[in-house]
Amino acid sequence: MNKVVIESIIEITSQRDSDSLPGVILLSLSRILRIKEAMLYNNVAAAPEVLLKQTLKLINQKKFNKKNINIFNYDEIDITVNKDIGECIEKHAIVINNKLDTISLYVPVFIENKLTSVLHIESSDEVTSQLEDICNIIKVYENNLTILRESETDKLTGLFNRRTFDNKLNNMLFVQKNKSLQRLQEFKQNEKRGFDDSGSAWLAMIDIDYFKNVNDEYGHVAGDEVLLRLSQKMQTCFRNSDLLFRFGGEEFVIVLEPIAKEMVQAKLDQFRNVIEEYPFPYIGKLTISIGYAKITESDFPATILDYADKALYYAKEHGRNSVYNYEILLENGELDDVVEAGSVDLF
Question: Are strands 69-80 and 243-248 parallel, antiparallel or unpaired?
């Protein structure tokens, strides 16, 4: 095994956050091949017949000078599945397409034996001689991503766990800030287009009403089933890009990517209604209470959690089965004690 591969393996296995791994794998492969472009397509298993999602892209800014390679994040851009991608997905096998001056390489990526992504590389090199090294690096990537995801998720529901909250929130906000700056730059370059800041990010806390009664009356097996079904409804009702957490017990947290203020309440109320009308196994119907707050740059993550928790507590104390916003409650004088916002920038 050559030195470059060993260095790449060390770098991949040193990562402690699954969000950082895709960029690391693209940069690692750029040390082996003269890459023109590299794309990572995710959600492959759930992709429709003609579309999948491009979530990461690497571009060589200057002709094959590896020191000028940049990585760009994308907002799950829909990509039409061409013949080569389709063959890679269908056969679960590497596909190589030799063009005039470029070789296209499509590599399936598996997590726990399930096809989750396709790596697409455009290179001027003859990739066949490098294929073993490429596969070795990708296998290390798959193994480490599996380990990290296991440590980041709640074993019952599959949602992110409490210990990952700060990192996931800060990573998402960092990406969102870059996107906002990019939109602002585009606006400055083309003043005919209106500037769209796409709203703010929001944090919502969810608590199952009278959940202790469920465990006491029906047992913990029924309680676990409720938690599992609720988490599945969360994954159905919210966007793939929203962050879903189980904080422990019957408490859940949702971080919604930027969305217009007037849409947040409607979205959370819609989810509350879905849960209220859903017939849970063993117990039938139950309800949830939700409190939410706006995420701003000047707050600690713990401060935002506290704001949402205050709104949640208000909902629990005022009839349950309801959704309340911290800022509106504060404006209306419904909350007496206010926690002073922290001074550390979330970004």
Answer: unpaired
| Residues in the chain, overall count | 347
With tokens 């870059």, the residue in question is 178
Contacts of 199 (CB under 8 A, 6+ apart): 258, 259, 260, 261, 263
3-state DSSP assignment of residue 199:
coil
Give residues with Cβ within 8 angstroms of 221, minimum separation 6: 282
Q: Report the run of H or E that residue 172 belongs to, with start and end.
A: helix 165-189
How many structural domains compose the chain? 2
Q: Which residue in this structure is represented by tokens 């190589």?
A: 96
Please indicate, yes or no, if residue 343 is contained in any of the structural domains: no
pTM of the model: 0.78
The pLDDT tens digits of the residues spanning 239-251 come to 888 999 999 899 9
Q: Could you read off the pLDDT of 200-212 as tens digits, one per residue? A: 889 999 999 999 9
For 103, other C-beta atoms within 10 Å of its C-beta total: 18
Q: Give CA angle at 46 (42, 49), nearest 5°.
A: 100
Please report how the helices 220-237 and 261-277 are oriented relative to each other, as an axis angle in degrees rounded to 10. Answer: 140
Give the domain extent around 133. 3-152
